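Note to self: user wants both folds in one dump. Writing first protein now.
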Amino acid sequence: MKRLALVVLLLLVWVTPAEAGRIGSATPAEAARTASAAAAQTYYPIRGSGSSWSENAIKQWIADASTIGLPVSYSGSGSSAGRLDFAQKMNDFAVSEIPFQGIDPTTGNADNSNGRPFAYMPIVAGGTAFMYKITINGQLVRDLRLRGETVTKIFTGAITDWSDDQITADNNGRRLPAKRIVPVVRSDGSGTTAQFTLWMSKQHPGQYCPFFAEHVDPAKACGLTSYYPTFGNAVGQVGSSQMAGYISAQYGEGTIGYVEYSYARALNYPVAKVKNAADYFTEPTDTNVAVALQYARIEQDPAKETYLTQILDDVYNSGDARTYPLSSYSYMILPISEDGKITTDSGRSLAKFARDFLCQGQQHMGKLGYSPLPLNLVRAGFEQVTKVPGAEQATLTPNQCHNPTFDPNDPDSNLLAKNAPMPEDCDKVGQGPCGVGGGSDQSGRQGQNGDQSRDGQNGQPGSVDNDGDGIPDVIAGVDPVTGQPLGEGLADNGTTPGSATELAAVRSEGMDTALAVLAAVELVLVLVVPTFVARAVRRRRARQGSEL
């Protein structure tokens, strides 16, 4: 830092008289170009709202954007609230797991853009996970396995105790303690709820649809709902962060809820392995999600309003043994014309933010508990971004993204999925479970990108950095949004970790500070130095004139 300060000082004072004369006598055209260059370094603040499923990824991208002076704020208020904010022009962009529904099937309220022109753009992939808390002899059980039918019965009140015979069968005869099951559900309008209930309605209608008719609306066709109904001893929580916090709290014994895998991973909490169509129990790792979403049907017609949205039926039924069945994409809703809220200034900021997270922003998504977008969707996303007012018409340069799905030898393939490991034999129906025992390591065998993500002792987080990028393979012990301690664990430098979503905080020491200082220096050089030098030159000329 001392060297950097010295460089700054030299830059501020080292201006020769000849250079000063040129600055002082700049033409109006040159001055305009200087002002334009300065403006190009500033970004108009933008605001988004919506999905909490995607919030950990978005918070990371916001941290990245702050290093170049691009101010972005985001509220993970839920997909339904985000879509409503967009329709009411209360945000610059929204994020949602599902598209506008036309009419909300639960509330009966309008669920459309209210005439505001928009486009959908995929932003990240991930798995909806079943985070739970069961302890045996004071240790977390980390090897729970559940069939889809069992999950559905738990979340419709048909199974209420962890020692139930069906749960025992899922775990190949291993019986859990007799403890009451406490389902934790979202009490707000949630895209996570919508994806979960859509999966149940498609895969287990015999169990779910009577529940839907009784608790949602008997007059409506069985299907998704963004508002999970209250039932039995279920507990409602607002947002993914509150749900994860409730499950991981001291009073959370016996709970199970549905969150994006990132929240459980950040807290070093186990998630249930879910049986796929190939009869293997799998976790929502980045590789398993990448494999699953190769079977997603994406709307390919650019003329349709639903362009790039997903149909997941073939994901649910994929026969690939590596598939995690509840895998999906999340979407940004982009404004595509000046509409009284978005302008060319804010649009330029939004486009820059989107291009950066579509490219470089995908490379560390696996460590955060998500899965990066494949090349075809990144390219399609870049095309969507060009529709935003004020957006630069930039093109994608894939080799600059360092996205682990990109295969330089085969641009049509997903390298992450191609290299995904097969599940172990002990994860197959009728065998295992793998690593049986309270407190045993659930995911050391199959961490993100093959990383050993936990040390397997007493449920404490590991501090492994297998890929050598300077970012710990797991950061645990804090609320993913507030940064407040919710568990125990150390970062790879032996200190208590900060916010689990801000991977920028564990980059090489001093990098962010240096970048911030350099940005400030650049602004000073562009805006301040020419003004002071010009004034000095004018005063010198004035003195020379008076002496003559």
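First done. Writing the second protein, which came from a different request thread.
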Amino acid sequence: MPMQVADFVLQRLREWHIGQVFGYPGDGINGLIAAFGRAENSPRFVQSRHEEMSAFQATGYAKFSGEVGVCAATSGPGAIHLLNGLYDAKLDHVPVVAIVGQTARSAMGGSYQQEVDLQALFKDVASDYLVEVNVANQLPNALDRAIRTAVARRAPTAVIIPADLQEEPYEPPAHAFKQVPSSPPGMSRSISVPTGPEVERAADVLNAGTKLAVLIGQGARDAVDEILEVAELTGAGIAKALLGKDVLSDDLPFVTGSIGLLGTRASYELMRDCDTLLIVGSNFPYSQFLPELDQARAVQIDADGASIGMRYPTEVNLVGDAKATLREVIPLLKRQQDRSWRDTVEENVRHWWQTLERQSMLDADPANPMRVVWELSQCVPDNAIITADSGSSTNWYARCLRMRGTMRGSLSGTLASMGAGVPYAIGAKFAHPDRPVIALVGDGAMQMNGLNELITIQRYQHLWTDRRLIVCVFHNNDLNQVTWELRGMGGAPKFEESQTLPDISYAEIARCTGIEAIAVDTSDGIRPAWDRALAAAGPVLLDIRCDPEMPPIPPHATAEQIKDLGRAVLQGDPGAWHLLVQGVKSKAQEFRP
């Protein structure tokens, strides 16, 4: 039997060492699905409960493995469902390839069932590379380019293959006019370094300052040693953008933690008081959390020249690999003899962690959500992978979780999509089946799609050498982040029809899928629940009933935000009295010595 186009696609994926394809079947990819069967499921087809989850799983896999993630879906509705996860990959600069079916070529343009203009649909999200394969000879070039472009540009790409073509015999491109061949799979990573004069200018700016603040993002991941050397020479403090939260350990005394609305007071103070700013591998968008525009001289290092100088008036912009560029800068730096700035930063960091511990231990009704993550930090394995969803629980991930060891963590950083936490965790388990994975998820995201993916976890856990995948649900029956945004940014009271969630038992649903579950409704029950879950032999769901009125207000809240919150209370917020009590108790911890 001659090799079909679909068989060749899977063969080429194997040659690229693609171990799994996250997807959902449909008749637009029937040829591809049949090929998986003939190939004895190599690469493995990982079936999600929805195509959006497949795209998120591929993105999570790519984030935690450092390799390209691949997802697949049928034409029409399946392709449409991929979009949210692919946009997450695009905005967070993650290499993902989508293989998508299409109506048979003979029916195109005939308003046929499930016929959607996929070129128009994907032209933005897959703007770096989008191709429709209409003859077999376009392969392997089309697929190879999609993979190489995704890796080189850290972006999603898409390959559209009509249903009838998938089942046709494969014919390689000939050595002929209008035929495009390809080279064997594989590619090396290029490392760019800026020119000497610009490096010298950057060193001059950094040497002239006495109060250096460093902001790092995910682009600094491979430059940890260099970042630490810069900090040691200059006495700098280091803040982390949310996607760079896992780049440096929070046990380092000069690391101030996250920055921004979800950030720490120590990071706010670092930016408020510095006279020099070094940004490495970050495109953090909220300039109001950076120094005043005329306050600090600034240097930025980024591999992407299009991202340089767009968040702060940086004086020197170095386009290049973070590690290689810093290696050029470091020999030109002078050691800062006056360590008073470093001493101040470290004192601010110590005070912040003390404040956070006191806030986490405050009484709440039923349980304090801050304590959920604070207690996790005390017992989490050093090699754990943590995923977070978008919601009020993201605040506690950003502020309360102390990264250390080889821990990794991520979330939908730029798109900030709800529903990424659980599929990210599944992708992480396929990237690192030997490491424990923990998903921190709000009940809104669980009702949106997380509950369905418990089925996926149960189905595939046997493939993981360490079966621990813990889904921790912050159960407060409220779309809590938006509720607080209404209060703190709009001065509007909680609108219960839009904000209150149906009360269900997440623990009971988990047990129905065959997953162990632990229900918690007191703060004192949190640590024993974590200990039990981490000691389990397989997946566990923690259903923790949390107080929705623990305020996720930033420690550097503005007068306008406080005024808006007061206005919401006066307008009859249903949780007015309780949120006032909890807010005052929490804020008071910042002023304790």
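Dump finished. Worth passing along: The mean pLDDT is 94.
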